[in-house]
Each structure stands twice: as C-alpha cells, then as structure tokens.
C-alpha cells in the first residue's frame, strides 16, 4: 500500500454531493498522469481495492471504504489544433465540467452549450456520456488518454474504443476500474448550430422560450448556455441546500407496444429515440427496426406520487421526481433503501425495472 503518498481514515463527506459521511481507509490526490503512472509502476496500488472519485456528483457511498480512494485533481486546458471552423482542446480530467463549459462558450465555441451547469469533472463526462437538452458528450468527443492501473502506461482510447452509449461507456462496463482517465480531447465548432428544440410536456417548459426571455437572435453559445443554466436552476435542486446526485435512474427503454399500453395509464407520457433526448419526434410509420423507445422515469415516478415525497432524511425534488435529494444528514444506506422503494413501486405498477444511473459503492 502506498503509505508514502496517502492519508489514512479520511472522511469522504466533502467529496460527494449527497454529503454522505463515510471514511476511506486510504486517500490520495492525483495531480498528474506521470505521478499516477509512477505510483502504479512502483507497485503502490492494489487495483482490487481502489476507486477513483471526481466531484462525487454521481456516486452513492453506502459504507466505509476499505481501500484506497484517488481524488482526481489533474488540471489544465490547452488548444491543440485550430482552424477556421473548429478548435480541438485537451483538458485535464480533474477540471470542473461546468467551469469548462463557461470557459468554452465565453470564447464563442459551440457544441457543449446545452451541457452547461452539469456538476462533475471533465474526466467523468465520457464515462457517463453526459447529456441534456438534446446534446450529448459524444457529439464533441475526439479521444482520451488513461493510465492503465495495472502497468502504469498511458494509453490512448479513440471514440470508437470508448464505446459511448446512453449514460454509459466502456469505462463503466468492460474496462470498469481498470483505467484512470487523465486527459480528454474534444472538438468544438466556431460556426454554431444550436439545438433548442427541447421541451417537456408536463409541466410545459421549453428551451427556446427561456432563450427568448433573455435576449434576441442571433444567439451566441453563451446565450444558450445561460438559458440552459436558467432552466436547470429552475427545475433542479440547489446543491448548496440539499444533497443530490442528479437523475438517480436512467430512463427506461420499452417496446412501442409497451409504450402505447403505458400511455393509457400515465398522463402526458412522452417518448423519444433511444439515443438522443428529442421528445415526441418518432414517426411510428417509419420506425422500421426501431421498435424501442425511451420514456421518462421521472414521469412514471411522479404519477406514482414520488415527487417531493420524503421518508426520513431522503426525498425527491419537488419539481423532479427522478432527482433524489437529502437533508445532508442521510446515510448511504438510507438513500439506497429509499431508491429501492421507488424501484419496487415502478415495478409493481408498470412492470418496469429501473436501473440506477448513479454509481453505487
Ligand atoms: N416529468 C414529470 N415529473 C417529474 C419529472 C419529469 O412529469 O417529476 C416529465 C417532464 O415533464 C417531461 C419528462 O418527464 O415531460 C422528462 O423530464 P425531463 O425533461 O426533466 O428529463 P428527464 O428525462 O427526467 C433527462 C436527463 C437529465 C437531463 C434532462 C434534460 C436522464 C436520466 N436524465 O432527465 O440528466 O438534464 O433530461 O435534458 O437521462 C442526469 O443525467 O443526471 C440528468 C440530470
């Protein structure tokens, strides 16, 4: 065990947005790829007892961690290529995602404006393939470098090798816990084409309406990012006030037939293609092989009375039933019990198994 660089028995409460108070047996900051590579090569890491933490905004810690926690603090933003139409950036994986978006839109670069104000690190963006308001990280992703936690070597993963899917990637599945992402490269556009088509039906909200409230066209990437931030602040809880980890479950995929069945029972149920967040755009006559759609778990949970419902220290946000929150006093086990109840109720009412989006440790 790398006693030279790590601290012992560290509380992880400041390092997870649910503010769950568990301890890590060992804890260390990683501030560069070389530092990490050297530690691995010197035999300082037992890969079996390790986990990597970014901002802890998508992690539920259920008990004291018996191994080593590495906190990602690898920083830096560099332009590595630029032409008339685009710019390619290399970003340290420990950079704060929302700050990075602010920086990019302030330069007039586009492609991530709809992903404004999503908590987390740049390194977590490809792992989760973060997405919101019709945009996803995969749209701008070029490639990334990661340290192999067995050999200490730095390996480049192309976009294809990273296998990004809906809120998932190879780093959440096949390659889970085997690599530490150190830098991420993205390509942004200097010629913006905005997608402001997002609207939710119940309650009625639209991105283009928010945008209009704040100004007139032509809009800049910063205008769109600020409208998205406004919408998110309106609809999602304030992490300063409550413990939260965003959407707790991914939105389920169902067959078209199942959707039509559910539509009769659930008010204002929207549907969208399995890849992108575009509501109600499917032409049933043209679906062909595309017989599966994605439906909002939040709508199902809301219909079942979960919105704003508290049990002890855990509840859901009063504007978004998919967003589990705490009074910052809840234990990880309490959060897990609460979300298991949500899962059971959706299973019982609609025969759907909700799958957690949040990493449960
Ligand atoms: N809805 C309700 N009641 C609720 C919650 C939602 O009726 O309590 C309805 C909405 O009115 C809307 C539909 O359900 O008609 C979908 O809701 P929303 O537009 O809020 O989106 P979502 O599917 O719940 C997804 C992402 C969010 C992302 C938003 C906006 C997932 C799991 N969640 O939420 O991402 O910000 O779309 O694009 O894909 C996250 O991943 O942590 C996250 C917050």
Q: Which band does the percent of strand residues land in? A: 25-35%
The molecules bound to the chains, other than polymers, are:
uridine-diphosphate-2(N-acetylglucosaminyl) butyric acid
CATH topology of the largest domain: Uridine Diphospho-n-acetylenolpyruvylglucosamine Reductase, domain 3
Helix content: 10-25%
Average pLDDT for all residues: 91
Q: How are the strands of the biggest sheet laid out side by side?
A: 6-7-12-10-11
Overall morphology: globular
Structural class: alpha+beta
**Rg result:** 21 Å
Helical run tally: 9
Number of strands: 20
CATH architecture of the largest domain: 2-Layer Sandwich
Characterize the main sheet: 5 strands, antiparallel
Question: Distance N terminus to C terminus?
Answer: 21 Å
Features:
five-stranded antiparallel beta sheet; 361 residues; binds uridine-diphosphate-2(N-acetylglucosaminyl) butyric acid; alpha+beta; 20 strands; Uridine Diphospho-n-acetylenolpyruvylglucosamine Reductase, domain 1; Uridine Diphospho-n-acetylenolpyruvylglucosamine Reductase, domain 3; Uridine Diphospho-n-acetylenolpyruvylglucosamine Reductase, domain 2
